[in-house]
Amino acid sequence: MLRIHLTADDLARVRFAPRPAPLQELHAALTTAVAPFPAGPLFARWRSRILRTLPAAAAPLADLVPGGRPPAFLDVLGDTLDDAFDRIRATRSETVRAELERVYGAGPAPRWIRGLHAGEAASWRAVRRAQRAAYETVLAPVWPLVQDLHRDAFARHALTVAEHGLTAALQSLAPGTRFDGTVWEWPAAAPDRDIHPAGRGLLLLPTFHHPTGPLLHDLPPHPVVLTYPSSPALPPPTPQPEAHEDPLAAALGRTRAALLRLLTTPLTTTELARALHISNATASTHAAALRSAALLTTTRTGRSVTHARTPLADLVMGARGGGGRV
Question: 218 and 273 in one domain?
Answer without folding.
Answer: no
